[in-house]
Amino acid sequence: MTSTSKRRRSGDTKAAIRAAARERFAADGYDRATIRAIAADAGIDPAMVMRYFGNKESLFAAAAEFDLRLPDLSQVPHDELGARIAAHMITRWDGDETLLALLRAAVTHPAAADRIREIFAAQLGPAVQAIAPDDPVTRSGLVASQVLGLALTRYVLRLPPVAAMDKDAVVAWLGPTLQRYLTGPR
After folding, report:
1. What's domain 3-63's superfamily in CATH?
2. Which of 32, 123, 130, 181 is within CB 3.0–4.6 Å of 28 for a Cys-Cys bond?
3. Residue 63, Cβ neighbours under 10 Å: how many?
4. pTM value?
């Protein structure tokens, strides 16, 4: 067997473990998800999970890679920024369990909370800096507070009025608040 095929199989195994971990963390949360259950979901021996990732925290960090895929906000009309971010974030939450797993875990596990902070600081922070150079750290923090709060009530707690809203209704309610945080006076 060539080293290339070993790497390819190793890469496939790691990808299968990450995918199983994302699903398990999303379903069970960080504390209840186990290496043994993740390995079973991936169809491998638990020792392989430990071999590739070392421990549960490292596996979680690897499984929790998430790209917000924010649009280039400098190309969005200034008065549409809040609505555009609201619509984008709802689409991202609806389309990927990874951020949901992170949110669930962040409520009780410091490493997950750290990971969410890193994601939003590294991705949302620079996007806001490009459009709102006056106090972008505060502005992006406020945007994150609304987006994460909405996600918690809609996807984790499933608060009936919020969970039942369609995307357009969420954007209509959330967009103006995000707009004020992004462009309003301090």
Report:
1. Homeodomain-like (1.10.10.60)
2. 32
3. 25
4. 0.77
